[in-house]
Design goal:
190 residues; alpha+beta; eight-stranded mixed beta sheet; globular
């Protein structure tokens, strides 16, 4: 009887439900943390962007999230900085230092758009000590043709520290940002 119960528990743990899967890609505590952070502040209270850098770069790890209805409205592949790569490791490292070419963790206010070398892009204002140099480092949200639209086993191309999306994913995100009367918060975590 014990071995049957153990086998059943093992099978359940190896085959997580969709709800468990969603918790892994976008942990509830991160959503709650962001909701508490923006509460009573002059930010968009309905929509946020999350980047879960624990997920490998060839998979969806960028999420536009409906905070009111607790659901993902867009998911995409997003690159990380070339300096974040640790040789012979699946782990990443992060920095707030100019010239590190590393991604930075923390909450960002998505600011105004501008037209630069990658076309339309959005300035990111770092709100935490871990990303407070984002403006100085010119860390922006932009698109780049080497970022794929669909998940695969291949890793996404690397940036110089910016979160880069595919052109299609960027255009979808841009609609959300441009329609918002208040700044949307992007939260990158690991």
């Amino acid at each position: 009887m014990k071995s049957l119960l153990f086998a059943l528990l093992f099978l359940i743990s190896c085959n997580p439900s969709k709800a468990q899967e969603n918790t892994d890609i976008l942990p509830k505590e991160r959503i709650s943390e962001l909701k508490n952070y923006i509460k009573d502040k002059n930010y968009n209270q309905n929509l946020a962007v999350f980047i879960n850098f624990k997920i490998t770069s060839g998979k969806y790890r960028y999420f536009v999230y409906d905070l009111k209805n607790d659901k993902i409205v867009q998911k995409a592949i997003v690159s990380h900085g070339s300096g974040s790569v640790i040789k012979n490791s699946n782990q990443l490292k992060f920095s707030n230092v100019e010239g590190s070419y590393q991604s930075s963790l923390g909450k960002y206010e998505i600011k105004e758009s501008y037209s630069g070398q990658f076309g339309k892009a959005y300035r990111l204002n770092g709100l935490d000590s871990t990303n407070s140099n984002a403006m100085q480092r010119a860390i922006v949200l932009h698109s780049f043709g080497c970022v794929p639209d669909h998940e695969s086993q291949n890793l996404a191309c690397l940036s110089l520290g910016c979160p880069m999306l595919s052109i299609k994913a960027f255009n979808e995100t841009a609609k959300h940002i441009d329609q918002s009367k208040k700044s949307i918060i992007l939260y990158a975590f690991y």
